[in-house]
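Subject: complex prediction, re-run

Hi both,

The earlier run crashed halfway through, so I resubmitted it with identical inputs.
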Amino acid sequence: MSTTTITHDEEHHDHPTGIMRWLTTTNHKDIGTMYLTFSLIMFLVGGAMVLGIRAELFQPGLQLMKPEFYNQLIGVHALIMIFSALMPAATGFANWMIPLQIGAPDMALPRLNNWGFWLLPPSAILLTLPFTLALFGIGDGAIATGWTFYPPLSVQGGIGVDFAIFAVHLLGISSVMGSINIIVTLFNMRAPGMTLMKMPMFAWGWLITAFLLVATIPVLAGAVTMLLTDRHFGTHFFSAAGGGDPIMFQHLFWFFGHPEVYILLLPVWGFIPQILQTFSRKPMYGYKAQVYSLWAIGALSVVVWAHHFFTAGMPVPALLYFMYSTMAISLPLAVLFFCWIKTMWRGSMTFETPMLFAVGWIILFGIGGLTGLVLADVAADAQYHNSYFVVAHFHYTLFAGGIMGIMAGVYYWLPKMTGHMYNEKLGKVHFWLTAIAFNMTFIPQFFLGLAGMPRRIPDYAIQFTEFNEISTIAAFALGFSQLLFVYNIVMCVKGGKKATDKVWEGAVGLEWTLSSPPPYHSFTEQPTVN
Amino acid sequence: MLMQSIKKTGLGLLLIIAVPAFADYSWSFPEPATPMALDTLHVHNEFMQITTAIFVVVLAIMIYSIFAHRKSKSYVAHVDQPLTKKSEIFWTLVPFAILLSIDFIIMGIPAYKSVIMMEDTRNDSNMVIKITGSQWRWQYEYLGAAEANIKGESAEDKQVLNDAKGIKFVSNLTTTQDEMDNKAPKGEHYLLEVDNKLVLPVGKKVRILMTSADVLHNWWVPQFGSSRVAVPGFIRETWVQILKPGTYRGQCKELCGKGHGYMPVVVEGVSMQEYQKWVVAKKEEIAKAAEIKEMTKDELVTAGKGVYEKNCAVCHQVTGAGLPPAFPALTGSKVANGPIFGADGKYLKDSHLDRVLNGKGVMPSWKAVLTDNEIAEVITYERNALGNSVGDLLQPAQVKSARQ
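This time it finished cleanly. Structure:
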């Protein structure tokens, strides 16, 4: 993606070229590029899997695959999309943009940074290898428990579960290292004059994300390790027969799993306001209120986990506590929505692709948020839980709120990263196709869930046919629209209209003071902030 | 005018096309059949209205801004002035107060009431049943009337509920493999039909004790509004009170392995009179099935085929080839071809009978699921069919004594 950056490092050291450049690089932009490229590839892999799932669900009956293979696809699709597509995309942006935004020459811990990235490809291999092994008669395929690893099913499962556990270990180590790097960078390498309360919002979003990762990833690592010892070393953490409890795993998993949702979203909540202010040509509204809200959401996110398994049974006071604490998240989130819209209000707006994605993002993520509020209600949750309603809900938060947000960021920063403008017309077509196909895919799923279709089933009763057909057709449209995205990026990396340093008329921030693409060692002279 | 009429026709056309296609489609929860489902639907509707209203208002403001405040309309960006202390406090407190009251009063109070109602499984419950989930079927056991006397409940009713005590059966999917593989037309209740329905009397509050024999399952009937995870080694509770007679269908809602999509729940709500008749008939049927029969090898093999295909073929396959490595083949297997009894007349550890009775690893225990007759039949079948020809047979009486 950034072949042109090589030319900017004349005066410094000799860099290895070719593959060794990428293997040994400690440059934040190279590493950021690798993260983003990896993320894009895995996004396509995870997407291909879900098209297999949707094709099977096109009509009742088993057409393409056996239920056991279907179960593997749903779990690996989720693990790949969450850990190998969304998280690396956010980390990629952090690597690229945080040093640029805070006026630093690089990340604070460059070697750690390199290691953090190079743990990802092995983990992706671990996740998908069991599919290939099964073809040669080794094991019975990948993890078939869904991405949540719930025992006792995961204790019963084949080697795919072990592979997934080790993949999660590697991904966890990688995320914690990345987070430590970001925390250290943000606390130590800000340009003179840039106090914490003057940091760009993206840096704030990532700082809180990093704290959440450091706090919760070890819990996940512990939980899956306990699962591993239950599977192979005769422990009984999650087996009632030995004094354990299967539901304890759910508590441990979701203590990580709920903050994980915000880990995926907070970086996006960071740069979306920056995009809004750029294209509204008006300063961000309520900076302080937004920072405080991000902190409030970060704090609340670690105390609401049990709403993911209300139906597993817990005492009434616990049900009430988790219900009300979950509802409380709507308060800081409402502040954020207010600030985003107020930033647009009475601005002088133009709608280039990043802005289209940002505005579409607000609307679609809003649907995700509001359905989440409804899901918090314990009684109604008995109906929604594990139905397609939930599937639709979390795709509104993670596909619209996560991936479409990331796409806004890609279009916003791509000219800065490559030095070329992308094809604006193609970008707009990509937005409209994505937005329409996404809604056509997931709106029917809300109704399927209400009508009583459970998730994670390979086949369904006849009454669910029509909505599944619509959803499948739209899912294919959604999937193939993403090829436009890939094409646009590739063409933009290869060439195109030269981008100016500022790129966007209304752009504010240190990253826009550097050339496009920025020099290899971003800021050789430290800028100051007033 | 023209535009409007075009729009109207367009909309009308859309409706004409769409409505018949979705005529019997539900856009919300299916018709509630219990007080809990009624309450859930009520809460759901109320919440949906509130959230839709919020969404529409916010969206309207945003869309207005998108169209009005554009550079292409030469709109000049306005500079937000810092608020005065007073108005800042006002603009913080008022929205917070509105939101707090939506969250914790308008939504919070009905939600609180629903939770209390949902979790109250004991008060006023007339009868108790136990549901055990296993891969991939439900087992129902009637535990009789609840201990406490309920106001207004007649002694006769209580007697009938108590008579049901001891009824215990397994409920299996009856949809055929051919229907799933698209080789036969799909029936009306494709995937939502079973051999033995759970029969419950209308109007009685039924306390349900839920557990599992292997992995997590979730017993769910959308029209009942209740769903609860079945956790192995623990008892979870829920309740239903069916308001009108009818057949209610649902399915397992917690991923439980490859048969997750194939363990439906079918409940029949009937009047007390019908319930009483059903109890008598069911008890007779169970007693008959439990009678120890003396059978010939051919009889055992013939009957065993049915038992095998209903219970075992899902993993070990109809041909006995299994799905290695998770589900081993029975054809030529050491267990199915090895001796059952030792020199002392007791069954051997890891013998065919031991494996079926007690299970091992992924193989479940069939002790509580199959009768003595069925176990004898299926074992004899497996040893003398599926490519095996051990030649021996197992009598139900031998299974009976092996259980003790």
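Residues 1-11 of chain A have pLDDT under 50 and may be disordered.

- K.
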